[in-house]
TrEMBL record:
<dbReference type="GO" id="GO:0006096">
    <property type="term" value="P:glycolytic process"/>
</dbReference>
<dbReference type="InterPro" id="IPR001017">
    <property type="entry name" value="DH_E1"/>
</dbReference>
<dbReference type="GO" id="GO:0006099">
    <property type="term" value="P:tricarboxylic acid cycle"/>
</dbReference>
<comment type="similarity">
    <text>Belongs to the alpha-ketoglutarate dehydrogenase family.</text>
</comment>
<keyword id="KW-0809">Transit peptide</keyword>
<dbReference type="GO" id="GO:0005739">
    <property type="term" value="C:mitochondrion"/>
</dbReference>
<dbReference type="GO" id="GO:0004591">
    <property type="term" value="F:oxoglutarate dehydrogenase (succinyl-transferring) activity"/>
</dbReference>
<feature type="domain" description="Transketolase-like pyrimidine-binding">
    <location>
        <begin position="642"/>
        <end position="830"/>
    </location>
</feature>
<dbReference type="InterPro" id="IPR011603">
    <property type="entry name" value="2oxoglutarate_DH_E1"/>
</dbReference>
<dbReference type="Pfam" id="PF00676">
    <property type="entry name" value="E1_dh"/>
</dbReference>
<dbReference type="InterPro" id="IPR029061">
    <property type="entry name" value="THDP-binding"/>
</dbReference>
<dbReference type="InterPro" id="IPR031717">
    <property type="entry name" value="ODO-1/KGD_C"/>
</dbReference>
<protein>
    <submittedName>
        <fullName>Oxoglutarate dehydrogenase L</fullName>
    </submittedName>
</protein>
<keyword id="KW-0560">Oxidoreductase</keyword>
<dbReference type="Pfam" id="PF16870">
    <property type="entry name" value="OxoGdeHyase_C"/>
</dbReference>
<dbReference type="InterPro" id="IPR005475">
    <property type="entry name" value="Transketolase-like_Pyr-bd"/>
</dbReference>
<dbReference type="GO" id="GO:0045252">
    <property type="term" value="C:oxoglutarate dehydrogenase complex"/>
</dbReference>
Length: 1004
């Protein structure tokens, strides 16, 4: 015990109405410094209890100054009092701790009473600090500090035997004090002896639960939490509840034991050391179901995942066990995934509440925490489609590892979505399996924050740290967390402070790196043994009943094991987390393989165009600049033309008419980064008066959601991917501010979007809008790195495909492109080739006339646009065919015209690059059989499309002809920062493109 440390202190705080005092006496026991925190509010304001004393640890010269001066002033000058306390609190109490306030009985003679007329000081709300969690007994091993700090804040420390040293004696402990109304420790009592106060507070705040909530800026919420932890008997459980808890613990523990026995050398990332996770989740689910929740979407990492699938989601055990069979064959197309990544969807009756409940655990990649925003997006979408605007029916639970929770930035990004109107899921319950280790790394070198959970403080989520070896304490915090979520619809964190009994996986040797910790772990009795002993000694169960429960579950496992041997084939689709039952056939196949035309009646186009160029609300004060834009649109509509922004309007609007929900999310998407979109109009006179014309198209249209996101890519793209998972009947688009910013969301692209179907047989129609264009804007803001996406496409460059009538749609099914009308969903990446802002100045795109060949009824997306002009009339005379894509076409067409080469050079545009339109390219190549073939791009040679298209062109011509490259030279940066260099590069490759002799005599 620290020498000379104080016995007790009162911390002073102010909130709106009250001055509050927290008494923090400390008591020692053999193993811990423990702290007790008590809030005595109103203490100084009532004439009956204005008994404050300053105590000091050492004789400090300022002692009398503070005692006499400030106290004295307090009675006469409330403002100085305020200042004084603020000063004390911040400085002396926290850092020097020489000065202590203590409480004396009302009869103490030395202090004057506070005059009844004393005005109450008021100030911005601050709340009582309760720091008991710093010394609560959270580590089941008893060797680590959950807050990484064995230093117990000295302002909190005292020992009972030091009472005299601080001016108190043992007799003070038995003096009775009136309790303030803000505390619940009294139960029915309004006064208690100090000894009892200390005991009760110790029970609430310094036992196996550490509650962090002092940072919450709501008196109501803080009081609510106190009300859950302070009343005597708050943690009381009935015998029936205890038996249920024991039975759940049996399942959790014996499941891992069973796997360990049967497959001792298989990786499973066992839960041993935190078996309480299973009853914890079940308690959260039961309590949430009781509060009205009927759909829960969960995300979690590897640790204990199989156990959660088995005992929470209730995946059939034989289906889990057969995954361990090395001879099990895969029935589905695709490459599949390891068993501890698979997801699951299950509808069942909750036994505790008798209500129907749907549970889904999202499949996820190894990349820790990447699934967090995906879960949130899916939960949001379910809430949206069900009209659950308050999150009373659908909720999400996220489970985290301690190291990943602290280390991964996407956790922070996800928290920052939690309160945003278009992204909130109205409260997520986070559960941290805090085994105090990450692989081989100790927490003290893995994080800089005291707890792994501190990230949650940014959203004022209460954090409940709990010793995972005390299952009843865990159940209590889980119940409180669920009630918190259903009461306040805000995030909450449960930190299960536990340990990891074995290595990171079952093959790892933890003694290499954590020898002492693991010596202790070997001595550690498992929680099931401890808890069953406790219940047996309490007489809640008999030893025989307990053993029967264990035997019963072991038998279930054995039987499932036997039947798992009959499973010869694994169906990944049985592990689907987001089934779309009516969308596919019963076998999970598309109902047809057809791609209907996407053209529209002119009347529809006109209608949408008019809405896009008007304000449907009366008396709306528009900005003159926006008025101009809308007038420009209206001119185009009159001329039956559309530019990029109108084209987008037409596409979205027509889908809305057909009942397809459209959601566009990303940074500044409402106006549009390039100020071209203006989907949300702002009244210039009335604060927060908006108008979204797209939602005024038709009375029975589907809703349009357009939302500016937080400044995140990883989190927001993950969220939208999850949103797109909930329903196939939606177009969900994420737009990057500039295409290159998608690189901070690369994990979502690489781990979910590209391989999602191959790993998890999961369709998804997410659309990425990535502004791209080499316009001299510098190394960033130029390239959306199309080469990266093309590299993910799996069409074989070397195999010329067979052509059937449905070749086009089959290609789309096999590779990655999407049209919302397709009978399946594929992620798609669209590069907006050229930014509409620059269109205004150097518009490479003339507005498109919406006459039939392009957008009218019966028309469809053109994968390839053949040459337009003289070259196609006399193809045999053509000397060079330049294939290209995007904006560079317009530069080439202009140059060709200037050079008068329109008869000799054909320009062909690939609108769909992947899957490669082998059929159309072949017929163009055959048409211009005398011409040499060129691929022209404005990107550098090692970027853009060249590496993707080259081998495919060679396959088309059976390697009989070269496909020459024209474009920028290879480079390390995507674009130059120098405008002159940019223009020189452009000039140089334009010259090459039309120098018809340049490749003569060259070998390929
Ligand atoms: C983003 C990411 N980085 C690194 C890894 C490799 N990795 C797998 S588990 C692990 C440790 C995780 O520790 P923790 O989050 O505490 O979970 P625990 O295994 O202890 O349950 C690491 C580093 C990963 N899977 N994902
Ligand atoms: Mg860990």
């Amino acid at each position: 015990m620290l020498k000379g440390t104080p016995k007790g202190i009162f911390l002073c705080h102010q909130n709106d109405l009250l001055l509050t005092f927290t008494l923090i006496p400390l008591v020692s026991n053999s193993a811990y410094h423990t702290v007790v925190a008590l809030l005595f509010s109103n203490l100084s304001l009532s004439p009956n209890n204005s008994y404050l004393y300053l105590y000091h640890q050492h004789h400090h010269p300022h002692y009398h100054y503070y005692q006499q001066h400030h106290y004295y002033h307090y009675y006469h000058h409330p403002h100085q009092y305020h200042h004084f306390y603020h000063h004390q609190h911040r400085y002396h109490l926290y850092y020097h701790h020489q000065y202590l306030f203590s409480l004396l009985p009302p009869s103490h003679p030395t202090l004057p009473s506070l005059p009844p007329s004393q005005p109450q000081p008021s100030s911005p709300a601050t709340l009582t600090t309760i720091r008991g969690h710093h010394v609560a007994q959270l580590d089941p091993l008893g060797i680590l500090e959950a807050d990484l700090d064995c230093f117990v804040p000295s302002d909190l420390i005292t020992t009972i035997d030091k009472l005299g040293f601080y001016g108190l004696d043992e007799s003070d402990l038995d003096k009775t004090f009136r309790l303030p109304f803000t505390t619940f420790i009294g139960g029915g009592d309004t006064t208690l002896p100090l000894r009892e106060i200390i005991r009760r507070l110790e029970t609430s705040y310094c036992g196996h639960v550490g509650v962090e909530f002092m940072f919450i800026n709501s008196v109501e919420q803080c009081q609510w939490i106190r009300g859950k932890f302070e009343p005597p008997g708050a943690m009381h459980f009935t015998s029936a509840e205890k038996r249920t808890l024991l039975a759940r613990l049996v399942r959790s523990t014996r499941f891992e034991d069973f796997l360990a026995r049967k497959w001792s050398s298989e990786k499973r990332f066992g839960l041993e050391g935190c078996e309480v996770l299973i009853p914890a989740l079940k308690m959260i689910i039961d309590s949430s179901s009781a509060a009205g929740i009927d759909s829960i979407i969960m995300g979690m990492p590897h640790r204990g995942r199989l156990n959660v699938l088995a005992n929470v989601i209730r995946k059939e055990l034989n289906q889990i066990f057969c995954q361990f069979d090395p001879k099990l064959e895969a029935a589905d197309e695709g490459s599949g995934d390891v068993k501890y990544h698979l997801g699951m969807y299950h509808e069942r009756i909750n036994r505790e509440t008798d209500k129907t409940l749907t549970l889904s655990l999202m499949a996820n990649p190894s990349h820790l925490e990447a699934v967090d925003p995906v879960v949130q997006g899916k939960a949001k979408a379910e809430q949206f489609y069900r009209g659950d605007s308050q999150g009373k029916k659908v909720m999400s639970i996220l489970i985290h590892g301690d190291a990943a929770f602290a280390g991964q930035g996407v956790v922070y990004e996800t928290f920052h979505l939690s309160e945003l109107p278009s992204y909130t899921t109205h409260g997520t319950i986070h559960v941290v399996v805090n085994n105090q280790i990450g692989f081989t790394t100790d927490p003290r070198v893995a994080r800089s924050s005291p707890y792994p959970t501190d990230v949650a403080r940014v959203v004022n989520a209460p954090i409940f740290h709990v010793n995972a070896d005390d299952p009843e304490a865990v159940m209590h915090v889980c119940r409180v967390a669920a009630e918190w979520r259903s009461t306040f619809n805000k995030d909450v964190v449960i930190d299960l402070v536990s340990y990891r009994r074995f290595g990171h996986n079952e093959m790892d040797e933890p003694m290499f790196t954590q020898p002492l910790m693991y010596k202790q772990i070997r001595r550690q009795e498992d929680v099931l043994k401890k808890y069953s002993d406790k219940l047996i000694s309490e007489g809640v169960v008999t030893l025989q009943e307990f053993e029967e429960e264990v035997a019963k579950y072991d038998k279930i496992c054995e039987e499932a094991y036997t039947s798992s041997k009959d499973e010869k084939i694994s169906h990944i689709r049985h592990w689907l987390d987001s089934p779309w039952p009516d969308f596919f056939t019963a076998e999970g196949e598309p109902k047809s393989m057809s791609c209907p035309p996407t053209g529209l009646e002119e009347g529809v186009l006109q209608h949408i165009g008019l809405t896009a160029s008007s304000v449907p609300l009366e008396g709306f004060n528009l900005h003159p600049g926006v008025s101009r834009i809308l007038r420009g649109r209206s001119e185009l509509v009159k001329a039956r033309q559309m530019d990029w922004a109108l084209g987008e309007y037409m596409a979205f609007g027509s889908l809305l008419q057909e009942g397809v929900h459209v959601r566009l999310s990303g940074q500044d998407v409402e106006r549009g980064t390039f100020s071209h979109r203006h989907h949300v109009l702002h009244d210039q006179e009335v604060d927060r008066r908006f108008c979204v014309p797209m939602n005024h198209l038709w009375s029975d249209q589907a809703p349009y959601t357009v939302c500016n996101s937080s400044l995140s890519e990883y989190g927001v793209l993950g969220f939208e991917l999850g949103f797109a998972m909930a329903s196939p009947n939606a177009l969900v688009l994420w737009e990057a501010q500039f295409g290159d910013f998608h690189n901070t969301a690369q994990c979502i692209i690489d781990q979910f979007i590209s391989p999602g179907q191959a790993k998890w047989v999961r369709n998804n129609g997410i659309v990425l809008l990535l502004p791209h264009g080499m316009e001299g804007m510098g190394p960033e803001h130029s390239s959306a790195r199309p080469e990266r996406f093309l590299q993910m496409s799996k069409d074989d460059p070397d195999r010329f495909p067979e052509f059937r009538g449905d070749f086009e749609v089959h290609q789309l099914f096999d590779c990655n492109w999407v049209v919302v009308l397709l009978p399946f969903r594929k992620p798609v990446r669209i590069h907006l080739i050229s930014k509409p802002l620059s269109n205004a100045r150097i518009n490479p795109y003339p507005p498109v006339h919406y006459s039939t060949p392009w957008v009218g009824p019966g028309t469809r997306f053109k994968r390839l646009i053949p040459n337009e002009g003289p070259a196609s009339e006399n193809p045999q005379q053509v000397k060079r065919v330049i294939f290209c894509t995007g904006k560079v076409y317009y530069e080439l067409a202009r140059e060709r015209k200037v050079l008068n080469l329109e008869g000799e050079v054909a320009l062909i545009r690939l609108e769909q690059i992947s899957p490669f339109p082998f059929d159309l390219v072949r017929s163009e190549v055959e048409r211009y059989s005398n011409a040499e073939l060129v691929w022209c791009q404005e990107e550098h040679k090692n970027m853009g499309y060249y590496d993707y298209v080259r081998p495919r062109f060679l396959t088309v011509v059976a390697n009989q002809k070269p496909i020459w490259y024209v474009g920028r030279d290879p480079a390390a940066a995507p674009a130059t920062g120098n405008k002159a260099t940019h223009l020189n590069e452009l000039r140089r490759f334009m010259d090459t493109a039309f120098n018809l002799g340049v490749f003569q005599g060259r070998k390929f």
